[in-house]
Amino acid sequence: MTEPAPVLASGVDNERLNAQLRFLLEADKLKRVLRQNLLVDGSRRENSAEHSWHLALSARTFAEYAPEGTDIDRVTEMLVIHDIVEIDAGDTFLFDQVDAETQDERERERAAADRLFPLLPEDQAAHARELWNEFEARRTPEARFARAVDRLAPILANWHNEGGAWVRFGVTRAQVTEKVKLIAEGSEALGAYAGALIDDADRRGYFRGA
């Protein structure tokens, strides 16, 4: 791991600052992780850091479609934290032939969380792990809305790329429809919009026949 430069700052806890820098330098590696989805303009594959930033921006933009009382600040924190584990675990394509939520995949992601979050000072490490666990469990309105935004993003990208990864990997309408259920759990409005996009994508022939 790249070490942060020595710090000698007056009135600053240098050990804490160096821990924060170590985490941020390690998090920079998320820029190397390529996803299967293309950018909306179709020019190249997006990386996971770009994906996380865009999700955080989406959550703030779509805040009015979250359940009443949802803490959007917490949602955006989750969205910039939850993909950090892909530095070690890699990105799993949602429609891979192997179940994307296998026990092996979950174990790899937990192991990554165990390594990465403790790079932070203890209090920040505990907070980051709490957010990551909350996102995974989907038991709070914030986690469900965060997951809804996360799941909507590739649907938007694929629709704007004339089917994109759906066409490349022979994805069926039924497969995509199954994933939309999670969007509706977090936001009725976004779930309805995702359903309309799928209807339109079907009319355009973006899905493999059943």
UniProtKB/TrEMBL annotation:
What SUPFAM superfamilies does this protein map onto? HD-domain/PDEase-like (SSF109604)
| The keyword Metal-binding belongs to this UniProt entry's keyword annotation | yes
Q: Which InterPro entries did the record assign?
A: HD_domain, YfbR/HDDC2
Gene Ontology molecular function: hydrolase activity
**UniProt keyword list:** Hydrolase, Metal-binding
- Transmembrane residues, as ranges? none
Known Pfam families for this protein?
HD_3 (PF13023)
Domain HD: start-end pairs:
27-188
Q: Which PANTHER family match?
A: 5'-DEOXYNUCLEOTIDASE HDDC2
Protein name per its UniProtKB record:
Hydrolase of HD superfamily
**What's the source species for this entry?**
Nocardiopsis terrae
